[in-house]
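Still learning. Any example?
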Amino acid sequence: MISTFEDLLKKKTESPRTDTKFGIIDNEPAQTTIQDLDSCEAIVLNEQGESVSFTPIDKVLIIHKTGSAVKEESLCDGLLTTNKNFYLVELKSRKEHSVAKEEAIRQLKNTIRLMREEDSSFSLELKKGKKKAFLCNKKHPHFRTIESSEQKSFYSETGFRLDVNRKIKIK
C-alpha cells in the first residue's frame, strides 16, 4: 500500500514521455497513452517535446481520513511533472458538468492540501516552478466558463492556477 506522495512518485511514476501529443485515460488508475486519443478524458499538448512524467494518484495512493481506518481521502486522478512544473489533473466524463466541476475542484483542493501537509522532499519541490490544476471532461471539454473570481479564490487558497479544459498545454 502506498500512503505518501513521495513513495508514490518513486514507485508509480510512468516513464517520461517526449511525445508532442498524448492522452490521459481514467482506467482506474489513470494512465497515459498515444492510442485512441478520442477516448481519452484529457489531451496533453507538448509542442516542445519536453520530458513529461505522469503519476496516477487516485486508486493508487491510499490516505485514510483522520480518525478512520476505512474512509479514504478523495484525491485527483494524477500529476504531470516536467523538470520545473506541476500539473494536477482531475478527469471527468460521465456526470452533469456543474456537479462534476464542483466535485473536481474539491478533489483538487484536497489533493493539494494533503501534498502540502506531507513533510517530505516532494512537498519542498511544490514550492518551485509553475503549478496548475486542470479539470478535464471529455463530454464537456470546456465545462461551463469558470468565473475569474473562482480562479482567483482557487489560486489564493492553493497556490495553483485553475484551468478547465480537456487540453493541457505543457509550457
Residues 5-169 form one domain. Helices lie at 5-12, 97-117, 121-125, 148-158.
